[in-house]
Specification:
The complex is a heterodimer. Chain A is α/β, with parallel strands linked by helices. Chain A has two domains: about 150 residues, P-loop containing nucleotide triphosphate hydrolases (Rossmann fold); about 70 residues, no CATH class. Chain A is built from nine helices and ten strands. Chain B has a domain of about 230 residues. Helix content of chain B is about 70%, strand content about 0%. A two-stranded antiparallel sheet of chain B has the order 1-2. Classes of the chains: A alpha/beta, B mainly alpha. At the A-B interface, helix 2, helix 3 and helix 5 of A face helix 8 and helix 9 of B. The structure holds adenosine-5'-diphosphate (ADP) and magnesium ion.
Chain lengths: ~240, ~325
C-alpha cells in the first residue's frame, strides 16, 4: 500500500533551487533512506511534506489524501510526524511534561501503559522528572522519538537522527530504529552510511535538489554516479 | 477534601484578604479607594499574565482594550442600557477587538510583537482622542453614573469594592483553572517553542487567539468597572503608561506564576498613592523599578524565589554530560 507519494516537487528560495521536480514514493512498512551532500535539499523535502514550506510546484499524497495547503498541525494529526535536524524538545519542561504535551492533541494517543512501556524501551523512565534541557543529547534524541511514538504516527520522518552522537550511541540508535520498524513506517535522512545500510529497504539520493538515484541500498551505495557525486566527498 | 491541605488554600487566603480589606478600610474612603484600585490591578495583571507569562507575548495594547470596553459601556449606559448588560456587551466587543489586535502575533515574535502592540496602543489612544463624540476627547468623561442594583439603588462605597474583590478572586481562580487545563499546557508549549508545538499537532493559531480573547476579557471587565468606580475617564486613563504599569506588576511579581502578578500588583498599585506627596521622585522610583526588575529579577519576586527553592534541592542532573552545542 502506498503511504507517501510526492510528485514533481519543486521548491525555490529566491534564486536558490532547493528541490527540482523531485518524486518520492514510499510503501507502508518500507524504510526509506535519503542521502545527499549538505545543502542538497533533504531537510527542505521534509519541510515541504510536513507543511512547513509551500512548494512552487508539485503534489503530495499521504495515505491517499493530498497534503499541500494543509497546516503542520493538521498533517501531524493525519499521522505524519517529523523530527528536526538539530534536536528540539521543550527544554524548560520536564521529560514527563514533554510527553504530556505530545499527547495533548494526538488523535490516536497511546494509552498510558503503552507510554510507560515505550519510555522504558527507550531508557527514559529514570529521567522523567529531569528538565529536558538537562538531558544528554542522546537522551534528548530518544525523547524526541518518544514524543512522536506516543502519537502512534503512520509515518515518522527522522532528519539525521544520529547527528552529534558518539559511535557507541550511533550503534545503539541503529538497534532502536530497527526495532522501531515494527511500530511505524520510517523515513530517515542520514549522513552516516552505516545507518542507511543497516536500516533502509530503499534509498534515494539527492544532489543539488535533484533526485539522482533511487533503489536498494546495496545497489545505490555502489553506483558509480553516486560515489562520484557524493560518497567520494564524505566518509562512507 | 480538607481545605487546609488543599492546593486551593492560597486562593482561600487570597479571597479572605480580598474581601476583608474593603471592610477593614470601610471607614476611610481614601484607603478603601486604594484597595479598590489594587483589586482592579490584580485582575488586570492576572489577565496580562495569561499572555505575557503563559503564552510569551507582551501585549502593550492591554490598556487600550480596557479603554474600548470602558467607553462602550459608558456609551451604552448613557443610551439607557442597564450597566450590567452594557458591561457584558462592551467586554465581549472589546475582547473580539482584542482577538483582531492579537492577529500580528501570528507573524511576529518577541520584541517585534511588543513593538507592534506599542504601535497599536498608540493608535487606540489617538482614536480615543479623535472620536470626540464618543469619548469627549482629551477633556474626558466625568460624572460617570454608578452601576444600578437589581433591587434599586446604586453600587457604591464598600459594596463596589466587594464586587471588585469578587471579580478579582474569580479572575485568579479562572486563571488557575485555565493554566492547569489542557489549554494552559498548550499555551506553555507555544511559549516554549511554537514551531515544535505545531509539529506535535497543536493548533497554535487558535490557541493564541483564544488566549487573546480571554486576556482581553480580563482587561475589558476591569475597564468597564474602572470607569464608574473612578467616576472619570480620559484617553490617558488607558494609555501606554497604564499598559506598562500592568506589565511591570506582572514582571516584578513573576510572570508565568499564578501569585507573582498578584504580589506585584499588591505592591505596585498602591505605590503612586503613597508617593503622591513626592511627585518628583515617583517617576524615578518607577524607572528604577523597571531597570531593577530587568537586571536583578528577570523571573520576578515569586519566580526568583521558586528558582532559588529549586536550586536548593539536590540537582540530579549536575553530574550528567550536557548536550554539546550544535
Ligand atoms: N528557509 C530557507 N530559506 C532560504 N533558503 C533555504 C531555506 N531552507 C533551505 N534553504 C536552502 O536550500 C538548500 C537546501 O537546504 P537543506 O534542505 O537544508 O539541505 P540539506 O538538509 O540537504 O543539508 C540550501 O541551499 C539552503 O541554503
Ligand atoms: Mg538538513
Amino acid at each position: 500500500m502506498t503511504l507517501l507519494d510526492a510528485k514533481l516537487v519543486s521548491m525555490r528560495f529566491g534564486g536558490v533551487v532547493a528541490l527540482s521536480d523531485v518524486n518520492v514514493h514510499q510503501e507502508a512498512g518500507e524504510t526509506l533512506g535519503v542521502i545527499g551532500p549538505n545543502g542538497s535539499g533533504k531537510t527542505t523535502l521534509v519541510n515541504v511534506i510536513t507543511g512547513h514550506l509551500t512548494p512552487q510546484n508539485g503534489a503530495v499524497l499521504f495515505d491517499g489524501a493530498p497534503l499541500l495547503g494543509r497546516k503542520p498541525f493538521q498533517i501531524a494529526a493525519a499521522g505524519l510526524s517529523r523530527t528536526y535536524q538539530s534536536v528540539r524538545v521543550f527544554s524548560e519542561l520536564t521529560t514527563r511534561e514533554n510527553i504530556a504535551t505530545a499527547l495533548l492533541d494526538a488523535p490516536r494517543p497511546l494509552p498510558s501503559e503503552g507510554v510507560a512501556e515505550t519510555a522504558e524501551w527507550l531508557g527514559l523512565t529514570p529521567r522523567f522528572d529531569a528538565r529536558a534541557g538537562s538531558l544528554t543529547l542522546y537522551e534528548q534524541r530518544r525523547l524526541e522519538i518518544l514524543m512522536r511514538l506516543v502519537q502512534q504516527p503512520k509515518l515518522l520522518m527522522l532528519d539525521e537522527p544520529v547527528g552529534g552522537l558518539s559511535s557507541a550511541e550511533v550503534r545503539a540508535t541503529i538497534n532502536l530504529l530497527s526495532e522501531l520498524k515494527a511500530r511505524c513506517t520510517i523515513f530517515v535522512i542520514e549522513h552516516t552510511m552505516k545507518v542507511i545500510r543497516e536500516l533502509a529497504d530503499r534509498v534515494i539520493v539527492l544532489v543539488a535538489g535533484e533526485k539522482i538515484a533511487d533503489g536498494p541500498p546495496a545497489e545505490i551505495l555502489s553506483d558509480q554516479r553516486v560515489i562520484e557525486k557524493y560518497l567520494g566527498s564524505v566518509d562512507a | 477534601m480538607n481545605v487546609l491541605t488543599s492546593r486551593w488554600l492560597p486562593h482561600a487566603i487570597f479571597a479572605f484578604a480580598a474581601f476583608a480589606m474593603p471592610l477593614v478600610f470601610s471607614g476611610n474612603r481614601y484607603f478603601a479607594f486604594i484597595v479598590g484600585i489594587t483589586l482592579l490591578s490584580v485582575l488586570w495583571a492576572t489577565g496580562m499574565n495569561l499572555l505575557y507569562g503563559y503564552t510569551g507575548l507582551m501585549p502593550l495594547m492591554f490598556a487600550g482594550i480596557a479603554g474600548i470596553s470602558a467607553y462602550v459601556t459608558i456609551g451604552l449606559s448613557a443610551a439607557g442600557w442597564s450597566f450590567w448588560l452594557a458591561m457584558l456587551v462592551g467586554s465581549i466587543a472589546a475582547s473580539l477587538v482584542g482577538i483582531v489586535l492579537g492577529l500580528p502575533s501570528l507573524r511576529l515574535r518577541g520584541f517585534y510583537f511588543t513593538l507592534c502592540s506599542l504601535v497599536i496602543q498608540s493608535v487606540i489612544t489617538l482614536a480615543f482622542v479623535y472620536f470626540v463624540n464618543l469619548t469627549n476627547g482629551d477633556v474626558g468623561i466625568s460624572h460617570i453614573p454608578l452601576p444600578e442594583l437589581p433591587g434599586g439603588g446604586q453600587l457604591t462605597g464598600t459594596s463596589y469594592e466587594l464586587v471588585l474583590a469578587a471579580l478579582t478572586v474569580i479572575g485568579v481562580v479562572v486563571l488557575t483553572l485555565l493554566v492547569e487545563s489542557g489549554f494552559g499546557h498548550r499555551l506553555i508549549a507555544i511559549r516554549e517553542d511554537d514551531g515544535l508545538a505545531e509539529t506535535l499537532g497543536i493548533n497554535v493559531t487558535r490557541q493564541r487567539l483564544a488566549a487573546f480573547f480571554i486576556a482581553s476579557l480580563f482587561a475589558s471587565i476591569g475597564g468597564a468597572l474602572y470607569a464608574p468606580y473612578v467616576g472619570f475617564v480620559s484617553p490617558r486613563s488607558f494609555d501606554v503608561l497604564v499598559s506598562l504599569n500592568i506589565w511591570l506588576m506582572v514582571a516584578f511579581g513573576g510572570r508565568g506564576t499564578i501569585w507573582g502578578p498578584v504580589v506585584g500588583a499588591v505592591i505596585l498599585a498602591p505605590l503612586p498613592f503613597l508617593l503622591q506627596d513626592y511627585y518628583m521622585i515617583k517617576d524615578v522610583v518607577y524607572g528604577l523599578l523597571i531597570i531593577g526588575v530587568i537586571v536583578l529579577l528577570p523571573a520576578g519576586i515569586v519566580g526568583g524565589w521558586k528558582r532559588k527553592a529549586a536550586a536548593g534541592e539536590p540537582a540530579p542532573d549536575v553530574a550528567q554530560k550536557t548536550a554539546p552545542a550544535r
